[in-house]
Each structure stands twice: as C-alpha cells, then as structure tokens.
UniProtKB/TrEMBL annotation:
InterPro entries: DUF1552, TAT_signal. The keyword Signal applies. It holds the Pfam family HXXSHH. This is DUF1552 domain-containing protein. Keywords: Signal. Residues 1-34 form the signal peptide. It comes from the Bacteria. The lineage of its organism: Bacteria, Pseudomonadati, Planctomycetota, Planctomycetia, Pirellulales.
C-alpha cells in the first residue's frame, strides 16, 4: 500500500483484513501547524484517577507516624516522603503533593459517599433527592472531545455506574447523569480496533494478535517515516503487543464472580500478580489512548467506596484479603503499616503510569507526553471516613505552566488522624480547621488546559500558587 504523508492525520489507521489499529502521534504525520514545536499546539490531556477509603493518618505520637503517614514530612520544597509514598521520589520534580483541600459541600458527608463528589463538588446529602452536576473531566471533554475519536475514556474496576451515593464512576454529564464506566481492559483495548467483519471478531476472540494482520501495512508506512518516527512507531507496536498479552491475563481476574456467602474467603487461586496486573493494564489503556490521540480525557476509579465489589480484592496484590477492612484495622498492632503497604501499591502503579508518560517524547512538540498531560491522583477521604484533607497528587503539565517539586500543606500542623475506636466518627466531629476549597484548583487545571473559564461548580477563582 502506498502512503502519502500529507493524507495522514490523527485518525489514520493501520489496516488488516477486517480490523484497524489507530496510529500513534508521529511528527511525520502531523499537520505543519501542530508540529511547529512552539509548545502551544501539543495535545493537552487530562487523566483523573481515584481510590477510596482514605490513607494512613497515624497521630504524631504514634510510632508509625514517621514511616507510614501518607502525607510527606516538611513543606514547600523541603519535604521527605515516607515508606508509603517514597515511590514518588523519582517524580519529585514532576508532581505537587496537596494537603488541606476538600469540597465544602462534602465536608460533613460520610466518607463512603465521596466518589460521587470528587470531580463534581456537588451538594449531595445522605438522604433525600439525589442530584449531581458535571464532573471536571466532562467539562474538559466538552471543550476538546470533538478533536478525537472518543470524547473521553471512563473506566473503573467495578464498572457501570453503581448507585446514587455509591458511584462506580467518576464521570457525570452536564445534567449530572452518571456516565457508565468500563471495567474490561479487553473491551477498552478493542476500542482501538475497527472490526468490519465477523471473521475479524472471531480471530480476536481466539486471542490471535490483531497486529499480525497489519504488519504489511505497518512495513509500508515505516519505510517513509523519519528515523525518529520509526523508533517511536516500533516502540508503539511493541507497546500494543505487550498490552494484548496483559489484557488477556487481566481479564481472567476481573471476570471472576464475587463470593456469594463469605466475601472474606477470597478464592485461593487469585495470585498477588493478578490484581496488580489488572491495575497496570487499565492504566496502560489510558497510555495507549493518549499515545494514539484516541482521546485526551480519561478517568479511572480504582475502587468503589464501602468495601463492596471486585475492587475490594485489589488488596491481594500486597498479601491482604479486603482493602476496605484495612482502614478499620488500623487500631490493631501493625494496622497502619498494613494500610500503608496497600496505599504504597496504588502509589507505585500511579508512579509507573506517570513515568511511562515521562519517558515518551512528545511528537507534536517539546518535552514528554507527561509535560503535556495533567494527572490528578487521590482520594476524597483522609482519616477514617473523613471527607476532608484530601490526599492529592497533581502531576505533569509542565508545558502548561505548572510548577512542581513541592508539598503544599494547608492542613495545619496537626490534621485530624488516628485510628477510630468507636463513638462518633471523624466526619461527625466539629470542624476546627477549614480546608482550602478544591474548586480553584480545578479552575486552574482547566485554564492551563486551554479553556477560558474562571469558575467551576458555581465557585469563581483559581489557585495561581500551582503555577510557575
């Protein structure tokens, strides 16, 4: 097949008999306006990744405070990570840790209702009519979604939408309608393929590599690429091949039925590698979607609140049965360390994903894909069921003007923490320290992503301290 580079764009596909694979962004195939290396025409991407149930918050007098507190020690540029977060050290200058931020409408809400509000900041009460509003990702998707094959990629480990006040999706439409999340890495992977006949579908169902059907087309294209793009193209094909293998392994884990009698008795044949591989593969799907410019907006809810669903078994990755139970067991000896090890696993996988973006050069301009991608990672709980002081990481976006290498601590010297030993839960106690509202951070993110806006969820103002 003969290729004309002038006819290739971000929607170009490699084609086999009945299937098609999206091309990665390549400098050789970009329109001149997008390849001028001025840093302004690069695709600007947003990924929001959420985990439930909070993080280790031992009190200062607790022996576990120094090693297993989620938040770093220190402030500004002078801070040290703990055993829970030291996996972020190689990314120190590509990320900012935030403390003391939350949504005002959520501060007196039970921690098991926080996923609904994390990206919307909506007023959602424990009882009465349920009404949500548009989420951060969908605001940006409305702005940029018509430039890609998919306006956004919405994922969660449990899939679907869940129920009101127990969302299994982070994404909500302009009318506040929950957008169903996809949980199958295979179905997400297949979104990169256009299957135009039944034979192609049967081949993919038999786990045969879709790339095999496209190698002739790939070789024709490769011959006319620049040397730099040949390297990027080969790396991309390797990434897709690797993803195919991981997808097949990961789908076996997510498709396992939940135990119906005693959820604590997890199936013995689920190896620790299975949940870890699953999380890695889901994050790899975002990487591939960004690399092919199939979308510039993605959300992934790693787990739902309240310890229900398949996501609660992700704790198997570090030798525990149920993730949510770890937050209740912090009152027991070694409890903080156990919860810290689980959170470290989540941090490690986020760091792996961010590092992969950092190591991928941006074909449409200067820097790396991470420099042109904004990643929000965190939870809407800190201490036990406490809907305040969200543990947050904002990474990437240095080509958008973000200044990193800092710990911005607005929580004060003694944030609420400690194990819950009965009585009123922390979220029920009187608020003695007002957090910063998180919405100005959202406004800043949207502005630097290229939107002209000065408000989010009815709140006006940005947070310029995040910028250079």
């Amino acid at each position: 097949m003969a290729f004309n580079l002038n006819q290739l764009d971000r929607r170009r596909f490699l084609r086999g008999s009945g299937a098609a694979l999206a091309l990665p962004l390549l400098g050789s195939t970009l329109p001149i306006a997008a390849a001028n290396h001025d840093g302004q025409k690069c695709p600007r991407r947003l990924a929001c990744i959420y985990y439930p149930d909070g993080v280790p918050m031992p009190l200062r007098e607790d022996a576990a405070y120094q090693d297993w507190s989620w938040f770093p020690h220190g402030a500004g540029t002078e801070f040290t990570f703990t055993n829970c977060t030291d996996v972020f050290e190689p990314l120190r200058h590509d990320m900012t840790v935030l403390s003391g931020f939350s949504h005002p409408e959520a501060r007196k809400v039970h921690g098991h209702r926080n996923a609904d509000q994390f990206l919307t900041a909506a007023r959602i009460r424990r009882e009465g009519p349920y009404k949500n509003s548009i989420s951060l990702d969908q605001v940006y998707a409305e702005h940029v979604g018509d430039q890609t094959r998919f306006s956004s990629l919405v994922m969660s480990t449990d899939g679907g939408i869940g129920t009101p006040r127990a969302a299994q999706t982070l994404s909500f439409s302009r009318t506040g309608r929950a957008i169903p999340a996809e949980q199958s890495p295979k179905r997400i992977f297949d979104m990169l393929f256009v299957k135009s006949d039944a034979d192609a579908a049967r081949r993919l169902a038999k786990n045969e590599s879709a790339l095999d059907e496209m190698l002739e087309d790939a070789n024709d294209l490769r011959r006319i690429l620049s040397p730099a793009d040949k390297l990027r193209f080969d790396e991309y094909l390797d990434s897709v091949r690797e993803a195919e293998i991981h997808v097949q392994k990961a789908k076996d884990w997510v498709n396992r039925p939940l135990p119906t009698v005693d959820r604590a008795k997890i199936e013995a044949d689920i190896s620790p590698e299975s949940p870890r591989l699953y999380v890695q593969t889901m994050l790899d799907m975002i990487y591939l979607a960004f690399k092919t410019d199939s979308t510039r907006v993605a959300t992934y809810q790693i787990g739902r609140e309240n310890g229900a669903g398949v996501s609660d078994r992700l704790a198997r990755a570090v030798g525990f049965n149920l993730a949510h139970q770890l937050t209740h067991d912090t009152k027991n000896p070694g409890g903080w360390e156990n919860l810290g090890k689980y959170c470290r696993f989540l941090n490690e996988e986020f760091a792996r994903f961010a590092t992969r973006l950092k190591e991928t050069p941006e074909p449409a301009g200067t820097g790396s894909m991470l420099d042109n991608s904004l990643l929000l990672f965190g939870s809407a709980s800190s201490a036990f069921h406490l809907s305040r002081n969200y543990p947050l990481v904002l990474a990437g976006g240095q080509n958008m003007g973000f200044k990193h290498g800092r710990y911005l601590n607005y929580a004060g010297a003694n944030p609420i923490g400690g194990a819950w030993r009965g009585g009123p839960e922390p979220y029920q106690k009187e608020i003695t320290h007002d957090d910063q509202p998180l919405t100005p951070v959202f406004v800043t993110m949207l502005q630097q992503l290229g939107m002209e806006t000065d408000s989010f969820a009815g709140v006006t103002g940005n947070f310029p301290e995040l910028l250079s």
